[in-house]
Amino acid sequence: MATSNKKSVSFDASANTVRDKDQTESAQPPTGVRCVCLSVKDLGHMIEYEHCPHWCHSKCVGISQPVAKNYPFICPNCVSSLLKEVSSLRSELAALKSQLSNMAESSSEDPETPSASTTPALDCSSHSGPPSSPPSPTSRSKNQRSSPNSSGRRFNLIVAGIKERAANTQRAVRLKEDLEEISSILSPLLPSFNDHTIRDSLRLGKYSSNRSRPLLVTLNRTSDVATILSNKSSLANHPHLRISPDLPPHLRKSRSILLKKRHDLINSGSDRKSIRLTTDSLYIDNVKYGSVVNQMFRECPPPVSGSAAVPPSDYDHPTHSQADILLSDQDNS
Questions:
Q1: Which pLDDT tens digit goes with each residue over 260-305?
Q2: What positions does the domain Zinc finger PHD-type occupy (predicted)?
């Protein structure tokens, strides 16, 4: 079918002249007739092919003149040629895929080719998190906050007590000041603190002019998280500040129950330093005193003389699950 910029022409077979609807002139079609009917005679209105310099009879293809003016028409021969080209391209693509697959198999079988087993890996003992990157207040680590059970929580800290600027303050200014304030608080708690320690920060909850929202701070290494939590007692002179691990809801509930029980024990005369917490249990002088079961604290029966229940082995190796252990010495004091 001819496009809108093409001329719709008609032929007078007896006079053998062409009458243009836009202007009348005596002329022959620019090229020969190549119609689907295989007739080379001029039988009235003609349509110019889109991809080749030929014409066809509009009646033979059943297209009206208004349609022929506004839409392109591709002849059957051109359609067939295009289909052959597509088929050829598909064959070439299949051959390339096969070649790539063979190369991949050869690479995996070649012992001299670097693979996952021979490629140097990151030293997990000194760097347990993702590669360091400059802090960017505007960046967001969605993978780490997309699910409450995400392992990305191990890289997070909750910092409460940092004053929040008014809502009409420019967002870039608020983010910059939050990052500077966080850095000034955490740097004394982490000897190795540098410009790459903090990956991201984000205010939690809905803005309120009556109180400052806590900050979710994401670090680049879990070891830094544990170190900061273990040194948070240095903030004793700043009672308005509070640092805690980013725990999932069920662990936050268990932690709340354990901290309440710990507070009661301290008020009843127990030595603060003798009490230790794990994820779901409370120990006094390394003897298990009780644990949280179904969101309720249950005391353990008195230990048999001579036996002592030592906290889990990870007690001596700070990890995310031990973050609340490290916190227990300072909370509810």
A1: 999 999 999 988 888 988 888 999 988 999 999 888 898 888 766 6
A2: 34-79
Spatial separation of the C-alpha atoms in residues 93 and 64, rounded to whole Å? 40
269 shares a domain with 186? no
Instruction: To the nearest 10°, report the CA torsion of 153, 122, 189, 271.
Output: 70
Could you tell me if 136 and 241 lie in one domain?
A: yes
Contact indicator for 261, 290 with CB cutoff of 8 Å: yes
What CATH number does the domain containing 236 carry?
A: 3.30.70.330
Residues 203 and 265 both lie in one domain: no
The DSSP letter of residue 332 is T
Q: How many domains does the chain have?
A: 3
As a whole number, the mean pLDDT across the chain is 72
Please give the structure tokens belonging to residue 4: 């809108």
What the block records as the tokens of 167 is 């809502």
